[in-house]
Amino acid sequence: MLSRISPRVKASLRRRFPSFYRSVQLWVAARAITETGSPWARNVLNDESLSTIIRTCLSQGSVGVDVGAAAGRFTDEMRRSAPGGIIFGIEPIPAAAANLKRLFANHKNVVIMPLALGSENTSAQFWVCEADTGYSGLRPTEAAQQRGPLAPVTVDVVPLDATDIANTSVRLIKIDVEGGEYDVISGGRKTILRHHPIIAFECTRHTLDYEKTPEDLFDLLDDLGYQIQSPECFLSSGAIMSRMYFSESVLQGSEFFFIASPSGDRQIP
After folding, report:
1. CATH number for the domain including 67?
2. Rounded Cα distance, 67 and 3, in Å
3. Residue 166: which of 182, 187, 150, 147 has the closest Cα?
4. Exposed, middle or buried by CB within 10 Å (0-12, 13-18, 19+), for 187?
5. CA–CA separation, 9 vs 3, rounded Å?
6. Exposed, middle or buried: residue 188 (CB in 10 Å: 0-12, 13-18, 19+)?
7. Residue 28 placed within a domain
8. Which long-range contacts (CB under 8 A, 24 or more apart) does 143-149 make?
């Protein structure tokens, strides 16, 4: 159904009737994932799971961090779930960051930070995928290159531990950085150990473009005292992923959105 609607009409529907649009999108996605296992459909359902997790984890005075804020959907959902808290939106693409600042100009509890998070303080080339900015990142991944021209821009890269976020009681961190999630988490090690936030993150084969494997990311989170679940299992207190299952899920593309939470069977150092 949605595929037969022009992009302009879809944008208008999404803006004017967001609840109706998302209901239709979910219906289409559920049918698509049942019939074909569509990655697009899985992404739609993952986004809805993330919305539920935001509403579940954040409350009045919570602190949330949206790493890879893009158009601001989840920054806004965090803001609505924590009206008395602080929401940090991290977005390195200059045009997107400027748009976020305009969008949240009247919301004093939203702080937009025009930078990339990484493992060290530096400046670096950030590769903007002009055909689909969702594939942009600090490395020109194969998936991004397949979608068309990449425009490099120089951005500041800062560890999470070196930002003002480290001084807050962070409750939830969402990470969507097209392969750079290991560096984001590594650069926030002290903050994570201090505040034990829930970490909602995407992980795909893009991580290989950063010379990291899914096992490397699993081991980093395990060292921090975290366990990994699918969003459905996190919400229902279901199964915890093993190292092998997590790696196979990422490399085979069967799952790409995960929730890391403090392990219940041991104390975080």
Report:
1. 3.40.50.150
2. 29
3. 187
4. buried
5. 11
6. buried
7. yes
8. 143/178, 143/206, 144/178
CA–CA distance, 33 with 265 (Å, rounded to integer): 34
Instruction: Mark residue 37 as left, alpha or beta (left: phi above 0; alpha: psi -120 to 50; beta: remaining).
Output: left
Count of the separate structural domains present in the chain: 2
> Does 166 lie in the same domain as 142?
yes
Alpha carbons 126 and 91: distance in angstroms, whole number: 11
At residue 71, what are phi and psi to the nearest 5 degrees? -85, -5
Examine the domain organization and report whether 189 and 155 are in the same domain. Answer: yes
What size, in residues, is the chain?
269
149 within a domain of the structure (yes/no): yes
Contact 82, 199 (CB under 8 A): no
Give the range of the structural domain holding residue 156, as residue numbers without chain letter: 38-262
Q: What's the confidence (pLDDT) of residue 96?
A: 97
Q: Is residue 195 part of a domain?
A: yes
Cα 250 to Cα 40, 179, 217: the distances in Å are 16, 11, 11
For residues 103 and 229, membership in a common domain is answered with yes
User: Which pLDDT score, from 0 to 100, does residue 243 have?
Assistant: 97
Low-confidence ranges of the chain (pLDDT < 50): 1-3, 27, 29-35, 265-269
Same domain, 26 and 56: no
Tell me how far the alpha carbon of residue 185 is from its chain's centroid.
12
56 and 176, same structural domain?
A: yes
Residues 117, 177 contacting (CB under 8 angstroms): yes
- Give the Å distances, CA to CA, from 244 to 186, 224, 241: 21, 18, 8
- Strand 110-113 to strand 86-90: parallel, antiparallel, or no bridges (unpaired)? parallel
Check residue 226 and give its pLDDT.
98
Is the four-CA dihedral 133, 134, 136, 137 of positive or negative sign? positive
